[in-house]
C-alpha cells in the first residue's frame, strides 16, 4: 500500500493536466508579524502555474518572509498561503517534509559543501531523498550539470570554481529532484555581469523546459525584467505595484520609477526620518533645518 504521505504529496503536486486550476501559489489576505512587529499586511498575490514571477522591494520589506511562508518555515497570523490549492499552514510532519522536498531553492548564500566534489554536491539531494541505484544517480547528475552548461566539471572541488560556476552548480543541485516549484532568493547577488546574464538565462530556460513554477526575490531590476513573466513590488508589507515587465517599464508610478531607475530619492526617502532637524542636532536653535 502506498504510504499516506506520498499520497498527500502526489495530490499536492499533481499537475492536473488540462485543469482550469492554473494558480500554483496564492497568498490570500496574509498578515504576518515577527513578535509584535508587523511585516506583511493583508497581502494578496498569485503565481500562475509554470510562470516565473519576481518580487522586488526595498531591504526589509518582507520579501524573504514571503518565501519562508511558502516553505512553511513560518506561518501567517491571519490569511492563507496556498500552494497548489493546499494551505501550507495545515501541513505538518511528513506532509510538510514532502512539500519542501518538492521545492528547489537557490539562495544567495546557498553555499556548496566545500568538502564534497561538484558531483557529490549535485548528487546530495538524490542520495538524501531517493533510493535510486548509483548508475541512475550518475546519469541524473550528468544531465543536471549539462542543463547548467557544466558537464565535465563533476570531479572539481567547489574551491576550484569561479563564483558564477559555483552558483550554476548550486542551481544544478536545486533542480536535482525536478522540483515543481523553484524559490530563488537574490540569485544574482555577487556575480559579475556575464555570470549574472548566464544565471538569468538559465533560470528562464529551466523554467520553460522543466515547466516549473518559480518565484524569485531580487533587487536586480534589469536582469529580472528581461526574464520574468510578472513582477510584484512590495513596500511596507504591502503590494504597491504589479505588472508584466512591459507594464513595469512603462509605469508612471513614482515608486516604480524610482525603483526601476535606481533614483536615490523619491517615494522611498534617501534620508532617515529623524525626529529632530539638523539645525536642532547642531544646536542652532530657532533656525530652520533640514
Ligand atoms: N526571525 C526574525 N525575527 C525577527 N525579525 C525578523 C526575522 N527575520 C526577519 N526579520 C525582520 O523582518 C523584516 C523583513 O525581513 P525580510 O528578510 O523578509 O526582508 P527582505 O525584504 O527580504 O529584506 P532584504 O532585501 O534586506 O533581504 C526585516 O526588517 C527583518 O529585520
TrEMBL record:
The keyword ATP-binding applies. GO terms for molecular function: ATP binding. It comes from Gulbenkiania mobilis. It holds the Pfam family ABC_tran. This is Phospholipid/cholesterol/gamma-HCH transport system ATP-binding protein. Residues 25-261 form the ABC transporter domain. It comes from the Bacteria. Keywords: ATP-binding, Cell membrane, Membrane, Nucleotide-binding, Transport.
Amino acid at each position: 500500500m502506498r504510504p499516506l504521505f506520498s499520497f498527500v504529496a502526489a495530490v499536492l503536486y499533481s499537475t492536473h493536466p488540462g485543469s482550469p486550476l492554473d494558480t500554483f501559489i496564492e497568498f490570500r489576505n496574509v498578515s504576518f508579524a515577527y513578535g509584535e512587529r508587523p511585516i506583511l499586511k493583508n497581502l494578496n498575490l498569485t503565481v500562475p502555474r509554470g510562470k516565473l514571477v519576481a518580487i522586488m522591494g526595498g531591504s526589509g520589506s518582507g520579501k524573504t518572509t514571503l518565501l519562508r511562508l511558502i516553505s512553511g518555515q513560518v506561518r501567517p497570523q491571519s490569511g492563507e498561503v496556498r500552494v497548489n490549492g493546499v494551505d501550507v499552514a495545515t501541513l505538518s510532519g511528513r506532509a510538510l517534509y514532502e512539500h519542501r522536498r518538492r521545492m528547489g531553492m537557490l539562495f544567495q548564500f546557498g553555499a556548496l559543501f566545500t568538502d564534497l566534489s561538484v558531483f557529490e554536491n549535485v548528487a546530495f539531494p538524490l542520495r538524501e531523498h531517493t533510493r535510486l541505484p548509483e548508475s541512475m544517480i550518475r546519469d541524473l547528475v550528468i544531465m543536471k550539470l549539462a542543463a547548467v552548461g557544466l558537464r565535465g566539471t563533476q570531479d572539481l572541488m567547489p574551491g576550484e570554481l569561479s563564483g558564477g560556476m559555483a552558483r550554476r552548480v548550486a542551481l544544478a543541485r536545486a533542480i536535482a529532484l525536478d522540483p515543481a516549484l523553484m524559490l530563488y532568493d537574490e540569485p544574482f547577488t555577487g556575480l559579475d555581469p556575464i555570470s549574472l546574464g548566464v544565471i538569468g538565462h538559465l533560470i528562464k530556460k529551466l523554467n520553460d523546459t522543466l515547466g516549473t513554477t518559480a518565484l524569485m526575490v531580487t533587487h536586480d531590476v534589469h536582469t529580472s525584467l528581461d526574464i520574468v513573466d510578472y513582477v510584484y513590488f512590495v513596500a511596507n508589507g504591502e503590494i504597491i505595484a504589479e505588472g508584466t515587465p512591459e507594464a513595469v517599464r512603462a509605469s508612471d508610478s513614482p515608486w516604480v520609477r524610482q525603483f526601476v531607475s535606481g533614483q536615490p530619492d523619491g517615494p522611498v526617502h534617501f534620508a532617515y526620518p529623524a525626529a529632530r532637524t539638523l539645525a536642532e542636532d547642531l544646536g542652532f536653535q530657532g533656525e530652520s533645518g533640514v
